[in-house]
Write a structure and sequence with these properties.
Elements lengths: L1 E6 L3 E7 L4 E8 L4 H11 L6 E6 L3 H11 L8 E2 L5 E2 L2 E2 L10 H14 L3 E6 L2 E7 L5 E8 L1 H11 L23 H28 L5 E4 L3 H4 L7 E3 L3 H10 L4
Parallel strand pairs: 1-4, 4-5, 8-11, 11-12
Antiparallel strand pairs: 1-2, 2-3, 6-7, 8-9, 9-10
């Protein structure tokens, strides 16, 4: 049994992998209390583990905390997956693959194998990333955008009159798409910016690939965006963990 860990900027997520399926998923907020998140992970880990695989974008402190905390749960040190030039049939578009966030790399690999071909991957977290992969495994590259909270925070910090916006739920009807308060205007504007970026990326990917690729959406912010994306969209909440499961076979 292996423990798979997705250490993001906002949340720590994990699941067990027995070689066939994911089980016992868990999550814990990590931004305000990263040490507490690691303790929650360690307390949820079973006593008998064959190994631990981690995709970490939360920085060196989180990596060190995971190494220390998981030492009691597994005799083998955790394996931190890294972005490389090629892996599991996918070729990285970056000239310097180490600069590609490992969360994006793992998600692209998971999507490529899930659909067995070309895909567009959206990971809506603290930042929102959009990546495209071709049917032959070529990673075309991607986009990085601020998430809704980061957009609102930038407006508060760098303007004089908008103030700190309290993000509102998105409207369910087209005629309510325009905010009737500053909070709504900031909330809706940030959301439509992300939806517009995803739809524009779909068009660009279709042009580059010669076909409209399947769209897979993951991340904590996915539920807010899904109702407003056109066409077929697949929600894969555990996409990064699915990608780590692919890597688990390489570290048997």
């Amino acid at each position: 049994m292996k423990l798979l860990v997705d250490a993001g900027n906002s949340r720590l997520k994990w699941a067990l992998w027995d070689g066939q399926r994911l089980s016992s998923p868990g999550r814990c907020p990590a931004r305000s209390d990263p040490a507490g998140a690691v303790r929650a992970l360690v307390s949820a880990a079973p006593e008998q583990l064959d190994g631990v695989l981690v995709a970490n974008v939360a920085g060196p402190w989180m990596a060190d905390a995971l190494r220390r905390g998981l030492a009691r749960a597994c005799a083998r040190p955790p394996v931190f997956v890294a972005s490389t030039a090629t892996a599991l049939g996918v070729r990285c578009a970056y000239a310097n693959p180490a600069r590609l966030g490992v969360d994006r790399w793992v998600a692209v690999i998971a999507a490529f194998h899930h659909v067995a071909g070309a895909a567009l991957v959206v990971d809506a977290g603290t930042a929102v990333t959009i990546d495209a992969v071709a049917a032959d495994g070529r990673h075309l590259g991607g986009l990085i955008l601020a998430g809704r909270e980061l957009m609102a925070r930038a407006l508060y910090r760098d303007t004089s009159d908008i103030g700190r916006a309290h993000l509102q739920a998105l409207p369910g009807e087209a005629e309510a798409a325009f905010g009737r308060s500053t909070d709504e205007a900031v909330s809706f504007g940030a959301a439509w910016a992300l939806v517009g970026a995803v739809e524009r990326a779909r068009s660009a990917a279709a042009g580059a690939l010669g076909e409209r690729p399947p769209l897979l959406v993951t991340g904590g912010g996915a539920p807010e965006l899904l109702p407003y994306l056109d066409g077929a969209v697949e929600h894969r909440p555990q996409l990064l963990l699915e990608g780590l499961a692919r890597f688990a076979g390489e570290h048997a």
